[in-house]
Write a structure and sequence with these properties.
Elements (H helix, E strand, L loop, with lengths): L8 H28 L1 H21 L4 H22 L2 H42 L1 E3 H8 L3 H13 L4 E4 L4 E4 L4
Antiparallel strand pairs: 1-3, 2-3
Length: 176
């Protein structure tokens, strides 16, 4: 079974990583408020940033904003914590968000490809009139399920396209 076309699994994983990192930052920040004062607030602020970033990556339409934020802030924190030689902070406040940002870029590419696929699929089916779902899946480097979902999206848009369940073909029905 393929990933959800609307929300790639990489977006879910990236947002989950940011939420986990946010949890550690918030706990560390609140726990260290009495000990280090204002610097503890920095961890709380970073935790809030990661919650926002996780939400933006999870909402695929805001994927770019969340991904760029995770990469930029993660890189800055990694450089800062490396210079100050704080080991635990590097992992949770720097490296994990960088990984989340990379996953966000992968999800962004997947999301763009799946949004473009119905239009490209329609062009190929128009050209051939009948084509096997398995051949379309191979051409688009995706699963047959995602091809079927794209055909359903095209049908919802009113395109004269359908399935032949017996032959497992997608058919373009010419308007006469």
């Amino acid at each position: 079974m393929g990933a959800n076309i609307e929300r790639p699994i990489e977006a879910i994983a990236g947002s989950l990583l940011l939420f986990v990192s946010a949890g550690f930052s918030l706990i560390a920040g609140i726990a260290s408020l009495a000990e280090i004062g204002v610097w503890g607030l920095l961890d709380v602020f970073i935790g809030i940033l990661w919650i926002l970033g996780g939400y933006l990556i999870y909402q695929v339409r805001h994927l770019t904003a969340g991904t760029v934020m995770a990469l930029v802030v993660g890189l800055v924190l990694t450089i800062l914590f490396t210079a100050v030689e704080i080991d635990v902070g590097i992992v949770f406040d720097g490296i994990i968000p960088i990984i989340a940002g990379i996953l966000g870029f992968v999800a962004r590419g997947k999301s763009r490809r799946t949004q473009k696929m119905p239009t490209d699929l329609l062009g190929i089916v128009k050209l051939h009139e009948r084509i096997k779902i398995s051949e379309l899946a191979t051409r688009f480097k995706t699963t047959e399920l995602e091809i079927e979902l794209s055909v359903i999206k095209l049908q919802e848009r009113g395109e004269p396209i359908g399935f032949d369940r017996e032959t497992r073909e997608v058919i373009y029905k010419k308007q006469e």
